[in-house]
Every structure is written in structure tokens, then in C-alpha cells.
Amino acid sequence: MPVYLISQLKIFDRKRFRQMQMSFMAIKPEGAIILAGDSAPKLTVGEDCPDHVGILAFCDHAAAEAFLGSPEYQTVAVMREACAEVQTLLIDGAAIDLELLAQQKC
Q1: What pLDDT score was predicted for residue 56?
Q2: What span, in angstroms and rounded, lies between the C-alpha atoms of 30 and 37?
Q3: Fewest Cβ atoms closer than 10 Å to its Cβ: which of 58, 70, 82, 103?
Q4: Residues 6+ apart with CB under 8 A from 43
Q5: CA-CA distance, 95 to 4, in Å (whole number)?
Q6: What is the model's pTM?
Q7: Euclidean distance between CA atoms 73 and 32, whole angstroms
Q8: How far is CA 36 from its chain centroid?
Q9: Phi/psi-derived region of residue 31, left when phi > 0, alpha when psi is between -120 and 50, beta in every other case
Q10: Rounded distance, CA 16 to CA 82, Å?
């Protein structure tokens, strides 16, 4: 079953955040698909909108946990802590066909 990693960030240092983003993209998470990265999310319910939201898809929990525990990710995590407060969730996904989803015309 796919697993989604959803990160919501409150950024307090934009320059460092951009450096962290470039470092994150350079590690190319193995076994992950980057589904979304939005630095201007629109709040539809609630009162506290994050400055950035990122969503990754992994094939299973083991792949997500391996990525989160990797030395490459840990280096980026230290960079992230220097520029933003983060809330990260791992959620079980429905068995969807990501290739079919990518082909949808919106």
C-alpha cells in the first residue's frame, strides 16, 4: 500500500529554506515520487496556514522509513530545522494508480 509523507512548514528564514530545497532535490529520494511542493498553499479550513507544503509518495512504509533514516535526508533535516518549523505526517494511502492519476486532464 502506498504511503504519503506530508510536510507542512512555517518558514522563518527564506534564504536558508531555498538552500534546503535545492539540497533536498539533489538527493532524489529513492523510491519516492514528489507529488506536490507548494510555497503558496491556500487555506480552506482552519486558522493557521503553513508557508510551504510538500507531499511525497512511497510504495510502502519501509521505503518511507528508509528515506527518513538515510544520512542524506538527515543532513537536509538539520538544514530544515535552521530555517523552518515543520510538522510531518506519514499516512497510508489508498491503492491508487499514480500513472493513471498523472494522465488525468485537469
Answers
A1: 93
A2: 17
A3: 103
A4: 49
A5: 12
A6: 0.82
A7: 13
A8: 7
A9: left
A10: 7
How far, in Å, CA of 10 to CA of 52, rounded?
7
Question: What share of residues in the chain are helix, strand, coil (percent, to 5)?
Answer: 40, 30, 30
DSSP one-letter code for 65:
H
Per-residue pLDDT of the chain (106 residues; tens, 9 = 90+): 889 999 999 999 999 999 999 999 888 777 788 899 999 999 999 888 999 999 999 988 999 999 999 999 999 999 999 999 999 999 998 766 667 766 766 6
Q: Hunting for cell 512548514 — which residue is that?
A: 9
Q: Side chain identity at 71, as an amino acid letter? A: P
Give 90: exposed, middle or buried? Use CB within 10 Å, 0-12, 13-18, 19+: middle
Residue 32 identity? A
Question: Cα(57)–Cα(5) distance, rounded to whole angstroms?
Answer: 6
